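Quick illustration, no need to memorize.
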Amino acid sequence: MSALVEIRNLTKHFRIGRGQVVHAVDDVSLDIGRREIVGLVGESGSGKSTLGKTVLGLHDKTGGSVVYDGETLPSKYRPPDFQRHARMMQMIFQDPYSSLNPRMTVGEIVGEGLKLHAKVTAVDVREKVADWLRRVGLEPDHMSRYPHEFSGGQRQRIGIARALILGPEFVVCDEPISALDVSVQAQVVNLLDELKESLGLTMLFIAHDLSMVRYVSDRMAVMYLGSLVELGPANRVFFAPKHPYTELLIGANPEPDPRSERSRESVAIRGEIPSPVNVPDGCRFANRCPKVMDVCRETTPALAPVADADQPDRLVACHLYP
């Protein structure tokens, strides 16, 4: 599978007071193939959203590069760069309540991108907006209404229409279901899956719910404190995790069946995720890992293929796998 997006040693640091630096994303490399969905999981504060925004140019890159369809994207975006790349890459934001302008109608919100980035008439904008509202399960006459008149699931559908109306090939979904009721989450995920198939989309799908990520993704990437610790086919990572952090993360994931959830042994990740300002030496998970060794506190493990002939496509950053 040819890669549409090539992320190479991508780094994003934020400078804060007193000369301190937040290591939000550190040296991440990842390829995303055409028409592939890569799920990105990890605890809050692991850098998932920052990675997605840096890939799209919403944050300037501190280091590394992003190559889209053979073209190296700028380290620091200027207005013309956004103008050029908006039609290729878009983002579906996490919070459907704050990501929509309450003073704009639905028609203005969904059609804004067309007015900014495409040379179309007002009639064409209206027709395209109506078409996209139908495609996401809303009615064309909703164009004159405002965001506050819709439920959370409907608002997220509006956000999806806004992101896809320009016809992008690559979409970053930044926890698009976490702010929604459980009953609505499956509907939104199924909608995204249908649109992915019909439009041939490539996606980076960021989420907390590992079961949902396994369902929707081709591959799963696990992120901890700004770095990738495991990468592989979604089902293999979910059912046969290699990294101790992935094991604990999946073990802490609630079972959808209440009876199974009641009967299973509770799993918790001990301790707190270290501060991204004071990143520990060696493996970043060492202070919380039940399988920690002396070498873990001294040497940072590289994300490398697992020495297993049956799983050549698994990458793990752990000293348990030399």
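The first strand starts at residue 3 and ends at 15.
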